Amino acid sequence: MTKHYLPATPETVHWGYFSRTLAPVLTIRSGDSVTVESITHHANDDYERMIAGDPAAEKIFLWTKDEKTLRRRGAGATEGPFTHGAGEGLGVHLLTGPIAVEGAQPGDVLEVRVIDTYPRPSANPAYKGRFFGSNPSANWGFQYNDLIEEPKKREVVTIYELDMGEASVTALYSYLWTSQTDPDGIVHPTIDYPGVRVDHATVVKKEGILSGIKVPARLHFGTMGLAPAEADYVSTIPPNYTGGNMDDWRIAKGARMYYPVAVAGALFSCGDAHASQGDSELSGTAIEISLTGEFEFILHKKADLDGTVLEGLNHPLLENDDVWSVYGFSVANYLTELGPDHQSEILKRSSLDGAMRDAFRKLRRFLMTTQKLTEDEAISLMSVAADFAVTQVVDANWGVTGTIRKSLFAGR
Amino acid sequence: MTKHYLPATPETVHWGYFSRTLAPVLTIRSGDSVTVESITHHANDDYERMIAGDPAAEKIFLWTKDEKTLRRRGAGATEGPFTHGAGEGLGVHLLTGPIAVEGAQPGDVLEVRVIDTYPRPSANPAYKGRFFGSNPSANWGFQYNDLIEEPKKREVVTIYELDMGEASVTALYSYLWTSQTDPDGIVHPTIDYPGVRVDHATVVKKEGILSGIKVPARLHFGTMGLAPAEADYVSTIPPNYTGGNMDDWRIAKGARMYYPVAVAGALFSCGDAHASQGDSELSGTAIEISLTGEFEFILHKKADLDGTVLEGLNHPLLENDDVWSVYGFSVANYLTELGPDHQSEILKRSSLDGAMRDAFRKLRRFLMTTQKLTEDEAISLMSVAADFAVTQVVDANWGVTGTIRKSLFAGR
Description:
Two copies of one chain form a homodimer.
Chain A: E1 3-6, E2 13-15, E3 17-18, E4 26-28, E5 33-38, H1 47-50, H2 55-61, E6 94-101, E7 109-119, E8 131-137, E9 156-163, E10 168-176, E11 180-181, E12 187-188, E13 206-207, E14 215-216, E15 220-226, E16 234-235, E17 243-244, E18 256-260, E19 268-274, E20 291-300, E21 317-319, E22 323-329, H3 334-337, H4 342-348, H5 352-370, H6 375-385, E23 387-392, E24 399-405
Parallel strand pairs in A: 1-5, 4-6
Antiparallel strand pairs in A: 2-6, 3-16, 5-20, 6-19, 7-18, 7-20, 8-9, 9-10, 10-13, 10-14, 11-12, 15-17, 15-19, 18-21, 21-22, 22-24, 23-24
Helix pairs in contact in A: 5-6
């Protein structure tokens, strides 16, 4: 077992997409552990607190009239004219990776154990050692077309601070998003392209918000997963059968995630970390922070899956000390099910009803295959002992998580 | 404070409906406690275990060619010809009540504290002192049109036993529902009318099911609530603004439920108790058992609500030591929103997406009104710290529960 360290640098990150075409930035063996740095794509909501003084963050976010370190941000077009910018913000998450696992082939399952997580401290001397995150209430949030106060259709960014001693998060201030012009001259009236630096001279900060309220920390990675096989560039926004932007706060220290391998090497990437999030991620984002994760990777070969909880797995599965969870989506695999326009079609198919249907089918299959239950046994057991939760209603391919406790089976 | 005891008798129960026209079977004062017996409407799935030897249950379920103790079962027609029977099974839950609270008026809020719950033992000498429940996978279940094994569109009844020492439930046997003919000669090819006695000579019992699996008990009342103001007879199936069939297993010992009072006296009823249920109640039912509940009732007068967590409350609210939960429905008040055919219309409107929308709006209102947050603060807090769960997908008016932890506000 080798321990690796993967820093976030312009060379080790990719922005807004998963891709089977990316060369691995690190190749490991099954059993190896990797400590992976991730930097939040929302760091420019408060440049001074989340970027300034941090050489890697400064370089990754560098974007002037003459230079843009990471040009492609998203799975969209890279030749203009652009509506939003190169990659078109079709996918927004800044991911570190991909990490290749030697010998991984389609049909295998990659297990990723989250050993620990460490927030990335501010490197600005004014805030040195402190931890900050951003929670935008964004145009893709569940609330956006259903606001009651004026101005309607507003976007609001709330900056939070994480106290690791108390393991809690408190709000510092908020501001209404104002139209921002990027260094290439494209105007962003809404949050429509990642990494645009918010000019704090154009916003009015509101202090003293959420006064006295402390939110327990739930450190986790919102996006973790493998490169899909279906397309060269796949937006990071919709989660899918190889994982990705699942936004479940239970994918935290102690979790073991299992992902179906779709391409040779598996190609694991992660990012989109959160200091805390509720089930639903209602506003469109969580408390977006930069986080370093310590992971162990175990490759389960296709031939060895039968008779294990991984038999027949064709979707992400979570295991921890207490539970197994399956992830249902509005569309189980939108890349294959929605045709060539899957990227826009999935936006029309966002539905918790679809996600509940998918979660039901996945948990039934899991119980029938791995616990050898009949369909009638599986359905009765799900009704009396499985819990279905709203994972998220903001990632195009909406999610419902179906959870069953391992203790139910202790006597078998 | 007076302690009352309300046994389940033919005179103290009503079957399948809430009604503003019912005379109270008990009138109490705010602050009084009442121990209420409830008998499950699924007891006839196994007459020998759940009815035989229990005089109250025998009398309540009595139905011969010449005699039917409780004729109306549901909010539907009581003059034939019947499709299913008197009341038409438009509403199926056997409820004890209504209990009137002196001085309760529309606009007030009734608090119901669940002090404790006690399962009702079998009175059959062959099973004396043991506790049994039934879990039908029914035609209104989420799985019914989506089965993979033959015969399709089957209904399956699973009988469970509750072990109070271990606080767990195990399956005893199951059987496929077979067409049952009631004493009036009406044939029930599916589970379409409550209290039809299953003739065990017509079913094949499957033993040894869910072998070795123990389900932790979650004793609770699936249906608790007040008479609505909008109609004389209202089906117990869809939950609504005065509560009813909410099917949340958290409405258990230690819970405080708050219901808006819609009619003079409040008219509280309860039943539909469960030994355990998962979030979603997927198969259409939980483990349906007979349960006795000890409750305290506190009337909060309209004039006293401002400045409390009950200010502006127009929907059910749960409080326990840890959380507040609001209940979102596909339609917030289907009785007023869906016109005269609300009973059939709500079946076309079943949707988790609608329930999520309603839960979002209710939790936003709760946070803005009772915690004095701005809309922006409420939305950010919900995104980072509120959890939305699937309550049920089987009660016509589907449910999503929005939960916020009280500890967040401890520092205020």
